[in-house]
Amino acid sequence: TLASRPTLADHLEWQLGMAQLLPEERATATAIVLTAAYDAIVDRYGSFVLYRKGREDLISTVLQAREATA
Known about the structure:
It is a single chain. The chain has 70 residues and is α+β, with helices and mostly antiparallel strands. The chain is 47% helix and 14% strand. The chain has 3 helices and 2 strands; from the N terminus they run H-H-E-E-H. The protein has a two-stranded antiparallel ribbon with strand order 1-2. A hairpin with a 5-residue loop joins strand 1 and strand 2. Helix 1 packs antiparallel against helix 2. The longest helix is centred in the middle third of the chain and has 12 residues, at 23-34. The chain is globular, with a radius of gyration of 14 Å.
């Protein structure tokens, strides 16, 4: 059987595993990535932009750039 596609949280957790972080840095980053209060989009450079749900105003320039290229 085919494995299911990884979620964004799965991917970001994998990236955290590749980073050399102190235990307290890893705990903070994991808490941010795995909480339902945050979401992420990909900017035009292919980078993840993490933001708190309900605060789309923080990513307005990224959203405008995506609309301009669509």
